[in-house]
Amino acid sequence: MIFQPPILALLMVAALAALVALWSGAFAIRVLARWDMANMSRAQLRMERMAELVSTLFGAVMLAELAALLLFVFNSDRMASLFVGAMCAVGTLNVNAYGFPALYLKIGVFFAATLWLILDHADRLGRDFPLTKVKYAALLAIAPLILADGATELAYFLNLHTDVITSCCTKLFTPNNPGLANHMASIGEGTALVWLSVIALAVAGSGAYVMLRKRGYWIYALASGALFVAGLTAIVATISLYIYEDPNHHCPFCILKPEYGYFGYVLYVPLFFATAMGLGAGLLQPFANIPSLKGKLPGLIARQVVWSMIGFALFGLAVIWAIARSHLILFG
Amino acid sequence: MITLNAVTKLYNEGRPNEFAALQEIDLTLARGAMSVLRGPSGSGKTTLLSILACMARPTSGRVSIDGELVSGLPERFLTELRRTTFGFVFQRFNLVRGLTALENVMLPTVPLGADYGQTRDKAMARLEALGLADKAAMPIEHLSGGEAQRTAIARALINDPPILIADEPTANLDTALAEKFLAILAEERAAGRTVILTSHDPRIWEAEGVDRIVTLRDGRIVEGELAEGVLGEDVA
Amino acid sequence: MMTWARRQRALADYTLAALSRRKGKNIALVAIFSLVVFALSSAMFFAAALRHETTVVLRDAPEIVVQKLIMGRQDLIPGDVVETIAGFRGVTSAKGRLWGYYYDRINGANYTVMVPDDPALIPPVGYVAVGEGVPRARGLAWEGAPLFLSRYEGDLKRFDVDRTFSRDSALMTADLVLMNPQDFRAFFDIPEGLYTDVVATVRNQNEVATIVTKASNASPQMRFVTRADIERTYQKLFDWREGLLVVLAGAGLLAFAIFAAEKASGLSAEEAREIGILKAVGWDTRDVIAMKMWEGGLVSLGAFLIGTVAGFAHVFLFDGVLFAPVLRGWAVIYPDFALAPHIDGVQLMTLALLTVVPYMAATVVPVWRTASGDPDAVMR
After folding, report:
1. How many CB atoms lie within 10 A of CB A248?
2. Are residues A59 and A162 in the same domain?
C-alpha cells in the first residue's frame, strides 16, 4: 500500500460511510418491522426522531462521497507518476483489478444516495410519511453497495504496488483492444455524435411531453439514463478527441487535468446532475397518486424535470463549445 | 374549534413509576372564545395545554383542530401546524438570553424562510403596538418583568396565529401588570383570536371577556359544585 | 429555492449570533481545531513542495545512468562503455561522470564531490565551487576563505573557493563540492580512463525503456537506472514520510474529535434551555440540526482557513522549521532554501476531508440527540 494523505482521507470517508450504512441498515430492519404511524407510543416517536438522524447522515454521506469521487479521480491522476506506464488516472486505476470497479461503485453510490435523498424528501412531504417503508427497503439495498464500495476501495489501495507495469489510456481506449472501454472508443466519431444528438432530442421531446401532459415521467427517466450512457460514450469516442486536438487520444480522464483547463468538470458535473434529477423524476412518479402526496409531489417531479433539462442543456452547450473551439477537424 | 376525545396521557409508560397526567378527557373549545383551564398544581393543566397546542402527543385518544385529526401526525407536521396555528406565552417567558428583544420576537420566523426585511418590519410593528419600540435593540436580560412578558406576547403573535396560548401568564406579575396583560388579551380576543389560558389566579377567572372556565382535578375534568369545591381548596 | 436560501440565511444569522454569545467556548474550539489543521497542512504542503522541487531538479537530469557492478557493488566504469552506449540508436549523447562522497572528519559532514557535466561550471585547477551548505558547516566566515580538506590524519589539501552556489533549489546542491577533473583524480586517486558512472541522454522519452533493454542485453554486467526510477524513489520516500506525519497528526485529530463530541454532547443548562425554547416556538428537529450544522460548518471552516493559511506560512515563509528534520532527512547538512510555494486542489480537498469530516462525524450524533428533545420540556 502507498501511504499517502489522499488515500488516508478516502479510506476514512469509506470507513465512515460503511459505518453509517451498517447502522442505518439495522435501523431500516426495525422500521420495516415496527413502523406504524397510527401508533402514538414513545417507541414510534423515537423511531421518527431516529429517521431524522438517518436522513441527516445520508445527506452527509452523499456530500462526502461526492467529494471522495472527485478526490479519487483527481488523486489517481496525480499518482500516475508513481507507476511505470501510467500517464493519467486510467493507468493508476489499471494497476490492479480493483481500480475500475472501485470507481464504478463510487459512481453507483453517488447516484443511489442522491436518489435515496430524493425519495426521502418526497416522503417527508406527506403528512403520514407514506413512503417510509419503501424508503427503508431501498436503504437496505443501498447499504451493501456502500459496503462493497468501501471494500473494493480498500482492496485497491492495499494492492497498489509501484513495481507493476500498467497500461494507460493510449492502450485502453484504443479500438483494437478487447473490452468495454475499447468498445466505446471504437464507435465511430460520427456515430457517437449522431447517437448523442438523437437521444438528446428524445430527452427534449419526452421532457416537453411530460411537462405538458404531466405524466409518463418514466419515459423521461429512461431517456435521461440513455443520455448519460450516450454522453459518456461520446466523450470517449469523439469529444475527447476535440479537446485533446489529437485524433487518437480517447481518454475520458485526461480532460480533467489542468492542461486541458479542467474542461472535464464542465462536461461531467451537469451530466451527472441532470441524470440524477431525471432518474429521480421517474422514481417518484409511481407515488404521485398517494393521497397525502397528491398536492405536492407532481410539482416536485415537474421541477426535477426542469432542473434535469437545464443540466442536459448545459452539457450540450459544453459539448458544442468543445467542438467549436477545437482546431481538430474530424469531419468534412 | 379544538376537540379532544377520550384523551389520556401517561408518563413513564410501562415503568413502575407510571402515572396518568390526563385520563379520558373529552373537551371542545370554541373558536374566537377566551377559555381558562384551572385547577390545583398537578391536576394536569399544563399537560392538557401541551396536547391542545400540539406540543405533545396523547398516549391514546384523538385530537382534532377544525375537524382535522392531528393526534396521529408525525412530530414534524405537528411542529408545522403549531407554527402556523398557535402563539405561546410561557410562564417563565422563555426568552433567549443574549439576543435583543427584536431578535427574540423574530425567532419563530427563522425556519420559515420568510423575507428578512418584511419579518423585521412586522416584528417592529408588534413591539411598537405593545409600547416596546425603544427596547427593541436591548438584550433581553435588561428588560423588566412586564417588558419581558410583552416581548413574549409579541413573539407569540409574530406569525399571526389564530390561537393564542398562555401558561400561568400572571404568576410572576403584580396587580397593575396583570391588569395590563388582561387588557391585551381582551383586545386580541376582540380582534377574533382564540385565547386559551391556564391559571390559578382568581383575577383571571373573574376577568371580563372570559367565556369559558374548565376545571381539572387529578387528570379529569370536574364540573358544577364539585368544581367550586376544588377551587376553594386551592385558593385556601 | 428562494425560500430555501432565505431559510439558510436566517439560520446562519442566528448561528453567528449564538456563536458570538458563547465566545470563550467557541474560540477555544476553533483554536484547538486550527492547531490540528495546521499540523496536517504543514506536513502536506512541505511534502508536496519537496516532491515538486525534486521534479524540477530532475527535469534536467540525464535519462539513463549506467553503473558497473562487481559482486553486486558499484565499481569504476571503463571509458570505452561511453562509446558503446553512444552507439545505440536514439541516444543523443553519453558521457563519463566523476563523482563521489567525501567524509569531512573536521565536522562529521558528508559532501558530494563531483566534476560538473557542464564545462562552464568546471573550476580551474586548485579551485572548487561549493554548495551553500559547505561554508555554513565549516563556519567559513568570509567570502574567499580557502577550503582545507583532509583525507587522513596529517593530510591537508588546500582549495580556493571559486564560487558558492546560490540558495535557489538548494535541495540537491547544498552539500556539493565541484572540482576540476585533474584535481578530482588526484584527490581520490582515480586512474585516467575510469569513471564513476556513465550518463546518457535520449531524444525520445518513450524510447528509454527500449534502449535500456537493448543496452542490458549488450552489456549484462552493467546496471541501468532511468530518471523515472529515481523520481519514483524520491516520490515514494516523501509520500511515505508525509503519510507518517499525517498519521501522527491523525492521532491529534482523533483526540480533537473526542473533545469536540464531548463539547457537543455536554450541553450547558443554558444551551439546553435555548433549544427547548426554539422547539417550543416552532422550530422542527430538522431546523435545530440545520442550525447546529451551520455552527459546525462555521467552526470547521474558520479552523480550516486559519490552519491552512498558518500551515502555508509555516512552510513557505518560515521554511517549515518545525517539520523539516523529519521530512528532509537527518543529514548533518540541511539544505537551506526557501521552498517554492506550491499548492493544488488535491491537497486542499484532502485537507478539507481529513479535518472537516471527522469533526462533523464526531458531532452529528450529539447534535441530533440535542435537537430531538421534547418541545414541551420548557413547560414543565
Report:
1. 11
2. yes
